[in-house]
Structures are given as structure tokens and as C-alpha cells.
Amino acid sequence: MLDFTNSNGVDRVMMTSPHGCIKPFRGSILFLNSIEEKYDSLLIPILRQFISKLKRQTFSKNFKSLTMFDYQLINDASGFFREISPLKFAFSFKILTIWNKIINLLPVINPFGIKKIIWDLTHLFLILFQFFWIPLELCFFLQLPHDFNLAIIFFLVIDILLNFNSAYYQNGFLNFQRNTIRSHYLKNSFWRDVFTTFIFLIDFFFHSQNGDFNPIGFTKIIFYLRIKTLEKIYEKMIEIFELRRTSLLDLLNLFFFSSFILHVFACFWFLIGAVETIYPNWLTKQSGLVDETCFVKYLYSLYWATVTIMTVGYGDITATNKYEVAFSIVTIFFGCVVFGYILNTIGLIIGEINKEKSIFK
User: Fold this and answer.
1) 132 with 185: CB under 8 angstroms?
2) Nearest to 319, CA basis, from 281, 289, 351
3) What is the dihedral of CA 76, 82, 83, 84, to 10 degrees?
4) What is the C-alpha separation between 316 and 312, in angstroms, rounded?
5) Range of the domain at 271
6) Total-model pTM
7) Are 344 and 261 contained in the same domain?
8) How confident is the model at residue 301 (pLDDT cuts 50, 70, 90)?
């Protein structure tokens, strides 16, 4: 038992044993005060943090949660109340309810299930196709069939719904909780997917039917934001099929990259010649090329882009007006960077191949 005494103005603590002996307890009230101060130093910051969080969450919603009855009750003359229309609130709530029901109809999807893998592979090839098709559509005034464009829009909308129900890795474990899956998707790629889908809707309703130049079609350039999705699916496929990052895979990546660069510059080189009607252009300079098919025109454009970017420059297809000269200058500067990158990458790949051969021996 503890007994508090005061001797000569000094507070002391006495301990009574079970046999009735009184022994002085080593320490004093100061010792107990030090323990109390130690716990206070731990608890007070936590309490302050709790109170601050409580205030922050309360005051951020107080005005939104007040009703007309609350305003009349507190008699706040400095504020004003604007009540939400019951019809508007009911309509918004109904849309949200329908949306949640649609999403909840789908089960939580395992990202490594066979059906999801097939879906992602289809998505991968669709992105690659659009990356190469969009420059052709913009510059050669081509159009995909109406039903095919509708199928693409339908696919992209379904992909958004699937992403709301697809599990993801969190701290090394698959997370199958719907609420966290939705918040994770909304914070990362939701808006990118919405914008890149919305531009197809715009083009679907406003695209040109007669095959002429259509400036609205240039909104499809936004679709290249899906490069992040392409990289994500590509890395996932490497992991699923257990592909080792070999030199052959690096060569294939370099081939696709260089082919895409040549393809884009070839398409825009043709566009500059096709829209120029006042001055002579490179198309009219080549005898009979104006009346050829789009495939032949594309071959000539790709030939020019290849010999220009690869710094060969035969000179048989040259710029004939100021716009083509300006574009040629940009292409040559860009080609020097790309060509240097390609040569450097090929050198590194060959070095890795020789290193692998020496290790094998």
C-alpha cells in the first residue's frame, strides 16, 4: 500500500508491506509527476490531432448539411439558404444508383484471369492499330466503316466499366475491395480513359462524310495519352508469359518505335503537299503521282521520310514551296536525334548479345 507523507517540506511516498512494516518508496511525487508528464507528452499531440481532424471534417460540411429549419433555428442573419430542388436531387441520386447497380452487376475481376488477359491483349492491339491509323485518317482523309467506329466506342466504354471492377496490386497483394478499387481507378487513369473515349464520340458524330480535310479529326491526337495504358498492358503481358527482356525483344521494340516515327512523318509530309493548292508541291512535281492510289502516295511519302530521317537524302523527292521547306528542316533536326538514338540503341543491343554469348561459352 502506498502512503504519501511530508517530512521537512519534502513530499515522500511510503510503502506498507503485508507484514505491517513501513518502508520508504524510492522516489517522490516528482517521480510520479515525471511519469504523468511523459504520458501527457504522448497523448496531448494525439488529442490535438484528433480535435483538428474533427474540426476540419465538421466545418467543411456544415453549410452543405444545413437545412432551412436549421437556418431558422439559429437565426443566422448573415447567411443565406438555397435549397436543392427535390426533383434535381432525386434525378442525381437515381443516376448514381443506376450507375452503382451496373457496376455491381459485374464481379470483381482477377487481372490475371484468362478472360481478362484476352481482353487486355485485344486492348493492346486496338491501341497499336489506332496509333498507326490516326495519322493515316488525318492526313490521307480516310475513314473507317461506321460500324467499326461504333464498335471501338463500345469497347472503350466497356473497358471503363471493367476497370471499376478489376483488382489491383497494393503492397504486393491483390486488392479485391470494390471501394478501394474504384478510388484507385478514379485517382489514376479514369479521366484519361474518359477523354480518349469522348474524342471518338465527337468524331463519330461530326466526322466528314465526303473524305475532305476535317479539322475536328485532329482531336483524336488526344488518344495518344493511352501510351500509359499501352505500357501497362505490355509490362503485364511480359510478366504473364514470363518473357525475359532479351536483346531480341529490345530489337522488336526499337523496330516498332522507328517504324512509328517514319510513319507519322510520312503522313504529315503527304498532308502538306495535298492541302497546298496555290503553290506547286512535291506531289505535282512527281509525274502522275497525283492520280495514283493512296497506297502509292503513302509509299512515296514513306520513302521520303526514310531517306530524310536516316540522313541518306537522295534528292529525288524535294521540297518545292516554303511550307515543305519548313517541314523538311524540322524533319532533318528531329531525324538527327532519332537516328542517333537508334544507332546508340543498336550498339547497346549488339553489346548485350556479345556479352550473353561470352557468358554462355
Assistant:
1) no
2) 281
3) -150
4) 11
5) 248-361
6) 0.70
7) yes
8) very high
